[in-house]
């Protein structure tokens, strides 16, 4: 499965809209596009996961790396519009306590 990545800038926010699956095959592509955005001081990186219906541990690893980068570069990572099965992955791993995740959860199986 593929992952579509669309990045747009809105003031001091980079909006990253994802669609597809985040797995061992697509995670490197996501990391390559996401990490440079987190290196700009004062930047908010908002990742919209509304159209991501599957993510595995490699996807979680990308977001943990992005979070670490934001802490080092004085930027911010925010995840929004997660489908329930993707949100569950963040809850099980305890990442909801350390990553800013919008509590609005989309349906989906």
From TrEMBL:
Segments forming domain STAS: 3-109
SUPFAM superfamilies listed in its UniProt record: SpoIIaa-like (SSF52091)
Example GO molecular function: anti-sigma factor antagonist activity
Gene3D superfamilies given in the database record: STAS domain (3.30.750.24)
Pfam families membership: STAS
Keywords: Phosphoprotein
Role this protein plays: Positive regulator of sigma-B activity. Non-phosphorylated RsbV binds to RsbW, preventing its association with sigma-B. When phosphorylated, releases RsbW, which is then free to complex with and inactivate sigma-B.
Family label: Belongs to the anti-sigma-factor antagonist family.
The name this protein goes by in its record: Anti-sigma factor antagonist
